[in-house]
Structure formats: structure tokens, C-alpha cells
Amino acid sequence: MRALRYYAPQDLRLDKDVAEPACAPHEVKVRPAYIGICGTDLHEYQHAQNLIPLPGKPHPLTGGTPPIIIGHEFSGLVVEVGSAVTKYGNGSVEGVGGGGGGGGLKVGDRVAVQPTLYCRECVPCKQGHTNCCTKNGFLGLSGRGGGLADFVCADADAVFKLPDSVPLEVGALVEPLTVAWHAISISGIKPGDNVLVLGTGPIGLAVIQCLPSFGVGKIIAAEMAGQRQTFAQRYGATHLIDPAKENVVERCLALCDGYGPEIAFDCAGVEQSLDAATRAVRAKGTVVNLAIWHGKVGFDPNSLVFHEKNYKGSLCFLPSDFGKVIEALDKGTIKPQDMITRKIALDRVVEDGFEALIHEKDKHVKIMIDMGLGEK
């Protein structure tokens, strides 16, 4: 089968003789239809490896080493259902626990795939915090296949059927939307709270789109890129701040009765955004970090201590978050289709996908690979 594989930074290859994966009893085989390029994919391509295992250092859960099939934001069609899934097709798959999908799946179903991999045996997994697994990994980053291939196998409870109202291309946006939904869910947000979102790339825009479902007050977006400011406003930002022209902290205080917003979501992951977020939120407020950082930064802990502010990390999502996002898409409370700014073919991923996001990042939000199935 065809598969786009990561060999090293700036070395992606479309291999055409990769062995098709066999479907284990507890798995579902999916033929990917649409795959989004994530900021994490871009960082792994552009810089040193961070999440993809290094040569000679296999991933502790999958045993995978480069070359690794990439692509972890994807939708597709079910082409095979494992024997244990057929027998236990109610979300309780024999020998598999902790997930939320898998129920009643059959060949031909349109699905979105939750890419997180977890051991199901460590303390966080047994407590239900599978996103915090001590060996956690991802389809499309850690081995066991990925979305940028003709076929991929996933644990049945990680495969979620899409309602007829949700097109497959939107199904490939479920994963980034769920990252946002989870971060909001753990933030302690309350109806009427004012919110600051720093950075309006795909994840920041996903946060902005999900926030109205939680009944928030003002949604303040801090972003320098003009096109992304436009997207932020389109998706629900009530106020825009250009950090190149305005002081983010002073503007937030002015917009929020002199006290600042209750919650800030740092989706930028740069030292300036961390500093602004911790100083902008009000006393007892919370900063939630969604960004994956690629180095140490300077930080003044007193910006939290003196007003009992909270700093919280948010990683990925839980299966329950995946289901809630699909439900919101079905109801139409989230309408993310305009996030897709380009569709490309598998053989043009590097030139029209990765390189475009590097050199034209202000122009694009989400570039989607269309695998040519002709399915909606």
C-alpha cells in the first residue's frame, strides 16, 4: 500500500510498497479519506524530533522507530471489523477497555479515529486518565501506522461513527476540536466567564469555536496575523488584540473591568504568550497551556504566586471528549468547515502541504489531504 513515512526532519517519503496492516481481533481496519496536517506534524518535520521516536530508541508502547507513517487527524471508511469487535460490538471489546467508540461498527461506516495510544495498565490509565498514560503515544507519530496511508488499524474503542450530518472532511477536524474541548472542560470555566485565547492557529481557532458551548462571556483573541484575526472573529471572538500594536495585558484589563479574564488559553507556546497569559488573568484565575513547547523559557513564578493564579497543562483528550465534539457537530453548534483552506493529493503533501504551511502560514488554517475515495 501507499504510505507517507517520516524518516528524519525534512525527510518525508511517499513509499508505495508498504505492507498492509493485518486487523487484530480487537481492531478495526479503516481506509482513510481525509487527513489534516497538524502543527505537531509540522514541528517534527521542520525541527528536531520531539514526539516521533529517534532511531535506535523504540517507542515504549509500539516499539516503533523511523520510518514512521504519519497522520493523526483523520476520518475514513471501515473496511474490516475484528472478530472480537463483532462479538462484543457494544463498545466493550473483549480484552480492551478504557475507550468510548467501537459500538456497533460495520464495514462501510464513516468514522473518525481517536489517535491516542495508551497501555491500559498504568495508574493514570486505570484511573481513567488515558491521555496521561506513562507510555502514551499516537497513531501517526509513534508507530502502529497512521492516517497518511491506504489503510490503518485502530483499537475498536478508538473508532467513532460519524452522523450522516457530518461530512468526512469535517470528520478529520474532530481530533483538533477535541483537543480544544478537553482543555476547556478541565479549565474550571463557568458560564459568563471572560476568556483570553493567545494564538489563533488551528488549535486556538478550535478553542474559540468550542467556547460558546460553555456559555462564556467575552472571547478575547490575541493574534498578529491579519488572516487569522479574521478567522478568529468569524468563529466567535468578540474582541481582537494585535500584540504587535497593543499591550495584551493592559487591553485585557480594560476589557474586563480592570481585573482581567477568568481564564486564558495559551495556544501559541512562546515566552511572550506565557508571560502575557499569567499577567493578564485576574486573581485566582487560570492559565491553561495547550501548546507543545520545543525548549525551555524564562518564567517568573511570582506572577502566579502573588495573586494565587493557577497554571494547568492540557494534553490531548479523553474518549468522552471525542463523543461530545461529534455530538456538537451533529447539532450544528460547531461549524468548522471553513477551517479547511486547501485540499491536496497524497503525492503533493510535502510541496503543497508542509512547505505551504511553513512559507504561507498566515494564509492557511488547515490543509487537508484528500485520499481520493470520492466519499462525502
How would you describe the overall organization of this protein?
With 376 residues, the chain is an alpha/beta fold. It folds into two domains: 3-162 and 336-370, Medium-chain alcohol dehydrogenases, catalytic domain (Quinone Oxidoreductase, Chain A, domain 1); 178-313, 3-Layer(aba) Sandwich (Rossmann fold), CATH 3.40.50.720. Helix content is 26%, strand content 21%. It contains twelve helices and 18 strands. It is globular.
The SSE order reads EEEHEEHEEHEEEHHEHEHEHEHEHEHEHE
CATH superfamily of the largest domain: Medium-chain alcohol dehydrogenases, catalytic domain
Task: Give me the secondary-structure category.
Answer: alpha/beta
Kindly, what is the distance between the CA atoms of the first and last residues, rounded to a whole number of angstroms?
Answer: 23 Å
Question: Helicity level, as a percent range?
Answer: 25-40%
The CATH class assignment of the largest domain is Alpha Beta
Radius of gyration: 20 Å
Main sheet properties: 7 strands, mixed
At the fold tier of CATH, the topology name of the largest domain is Quinone Oxidoreductase, Chain A, domain 1
Mean pLDDT: 93
Strand content: 15-25%
Number of helices: 12
So what's the overall shape? globular
The counted number of beta strands is 18
Low-confidence runs of at least 5 consecutive residues: 88-99
Write down the domain tally. Answer: 2
Cofactor: Zn(2+)
Protein name: Chaperonin 10-like protein
GO molecular function, one term: zinc ion binding
Pfam families: ADH_N, ADH_zinc_N
